[in-house]
Amino acid sequence: MFKNAIVRRPAPSMVEGITSAPHLGQPDYLLALRQHDAYIKALEGCGVAVKVLEAAPDYPDSCFVEDVAVLTPSCALITNPGAPTRQGEVAMIVDCIKGFYPEEKIGRIDSPGTLEGGDVMMVGNHFYIGQSARTNAAGARQMLDFLLGYGYSGSTAALSKILHLKTGLSYLENDTLLITGEFVGQPDFAAFRQIIVPPEEAYAANCIWVNGKVIVPAGFPDTARAIALAGYEIVLVDTSEFRKLDGGLSCLSLRF
Question: What is the dihedral sign for C-alpha 239, 209, 225, 23?
């Protein structure tokens, strides 16, 4: 169960954020703010206390706070983003993390290692780490070494077609995995009960389980229906403006 979540407000500069989907158009900042408000409300409705950090105009992608830290029940890890324009975001999260974890339980990813939280999926006491354009082998190794000190296990998973591991995978607890694209059929995930997201709704593979409910992006009815039929209560949240920056539901918060 999660008790807390950390989010960062979008800044007007978000319209200059990194994107691989310029065809979706430039984000509408005011609409993004309203969607962010609804996202916070959804988290609170799932029973977590939400710490809201102020916007960081110098960093257009900083609302995607998940990428700068990995938080577990026992320890915290400050990452080293693989996108050079995002590396300055790390310093801004440290004081907040220290408000929840003693300093001796906070680790760091050091260069040349890179790691972004979007590439980390926690399944019980095991962590899957995606090796992507943003997370390299050195960063994954540093994370695994750190986690072993707290009794956790971990493994890596290669990906080549999507941005982050959790772009195509979401763990919904109860041995259930939301899965799409290049991960379908991979032996690493064969033991899970799988809800396969069709290619036309691939964006909806990024959902978040929060205390028994699943927050699902609005506009993907087949995926929402499949999750509900699997026995979950769903909460729909529109993230259209964050999608334009390759961002999904998990990207917008740290949940612990």
Answer: positive
Task: Give the pair of three-digit tokens for residue 226.
Answer: 């499949």
Q: Which residues of the chain have pLDDT under 70?
A: none
Phi then psi for 244, rounded to 5 degrees? -65, -15
Tokens linked to 133: 């354009």
Is 23 considered catalytic here?
no
Sign for the CA dihedral angle at 224, 119, 1, 33 comes to negative
Summarize pLDDT for 172-195 with one digit per residue, the tens. Answer: 999 999 999 999 999 999 999 999
| Span 85-107, pLDDT tens digits | 999 999 999 999 999 999 999 99
What the block records as the tokens of 18 is 């990194």
Domains of the chain, with CATH numbers?
4-255 (3.75.10.10)
Spot the catalytic one: 36, 46, 63, 164: 164
SS (H, E, C) the chain: CCCEEEEECCCHHHHHCCCCCHHHCCCCHHHHHHHHHHHHHHHHHCCCEEEEECCCCCCCCCCCHHHHEEECCCCEEECECCCHHHCCHHHHHHHHHHCCCCHHHEEECCCCCCECHHHEEEECCEEEEEECCCCCHHHHHHHHHHHHCCCCEEEEEECCCCCCHHHHEEECCCCEEEECHHHCCCHHHCCCEEEECCHHHHHHHCCEEECCEEEEECCCHHHHHHHHHCCCEEEEECCHHHHCCCCCCHHHCEEC
Supply the pTM of this predicted model.
0.97
**Is 164 designated active site?**
yes
Q: What CA–CA distance (Å, rounded) separates 100 from 83? A: 26
Of 167, 164, 169, the residue nearest 196 (C-alpha): 169
